[in-house]
Each structure stands twice: as C-alpha cells, then as structure tokens.
Amino acid sequence: MSESKRDSDGGPGSGIRDPKLDELLTAARAARENACADFSHFAVGAALETEEGAVVTGCNIENATYGLTMCAERVALFKALSEGHRSFRRLVIVATPDAPTPPCGACRQLLWEFAGDVEVVLANLEGETSRYRMRELLPAPFDRRLLK
C-alpha cells in the first residue's frame, strides 16, 4: 500500500498516533546528524525496528571514491545483523527533501534478503511522507529461491 492515507494503523492522514513510529522518526533524525556526507551534502538517517521492538540506527557514510559509500539503510541493517537481530518489522528513512527518498537498488536488494517484506516509511525533517512494502520497491527480487 504505497503512499496511502491509511485510516486504522497510524499511517499518514489517519489521526492515530503511533508512539513507536514517533520513536523511530526521532531516532532516524538523530542518526542523520551523524552522517558523513562531505561530498554530496545529502545526509540520511535510518532506524530499523526489530520484531522484538529494538531500534537500530544508521547514517550514510561517504568517501571520495563514492563507490565505497555506505547508505544509512545498509549501516542500520548491518549493525542489526551484527548484533544478532534476524527479524524486522519496519524501517524509517529520513532525508531533507520534501519528496520521499526511497532506498537505492543495493539497499533494496539487501533489505529484501535480510528483512523480507518489511514496511519502509519515508520521511523528511517535518514528518512521514509515504509508506511502502519492500515487495513494492523491489517487485522481482533476486534471492536464494533462484539459486537452486
């Protein structure tokens, strides 16, 4: 259900407050402040919620070669995996533009493989802008099913 105005789950326009989403938005905004974005000046923060309710954050980390840059989503995912988390509920991504900033292709691939059809909430500094499921962002994924 992309960019929906869901009425019953705290989605945009619902009027229902989701305290955990508020926590995730705050955590992603705070993580964004630690971004190393000296080249693009495009700071991004992410907060990944585990099934147990833990919140793991990440920010983008750039370097001069660009190709070795790490997106906020992957930093959060790798931190979570390295801490033993294996099941995830949703991911919040915060960036500055008014338009939503969805994950790049590499992040989509890794999120699909390690987090599955997780909910992805996009936000700017003011608040949530849209929601997706990973199956919407990566409709024909390459994964272990194809390796048999």
Task: Jot down its keywords.
single chain, Cytidine Deaminase, domain 2, five-stranded mixed beta sheet, 148 residues
Describe the structure.
By secondary structure, the chain is α+β, with helices and mostly antiparallel strands. 27% of the residues lie in helices and 20% in strands. The chain has a five-stranded mixed β-sheet with strand order 2-1-3-4-5. Strand 1 (45-50) and strand 2 (55-59) form a beta hairpin.
Q: Domains counted in the coordinates: how many?
A: 1
CATH class: Alpha Beta
**Shape label:** globular
Which structural class should the secondary elements be placed in? alpha+beta
Name of the CATH homologous superfamily: Cytidine Deaminase, domain 2
Compressed to H and E, one letter per element, the order equals: HEEHEHEEH
Q: What is the count of β-strands?
A: 5
Instruction: Estimate the strand proportion.
Output: 15-25%
CATH architecture identity: 3-Layer(aba) Sandwich
Please give the radius of gyration in angstroms: 15 Å
**What order do the strands of the largest sheet run in, or round the barrel if closed?**
2-1-3-4-5
| Distance from first to last alpha carbon | 31 Å
Query: Uncertain segments of ≥5 residues (pLDDT<50)?
Result: 1-9
Total helix count?
Answer: 4
Biggest β-sheet: count, sense, barrel? 5 strands, mixed
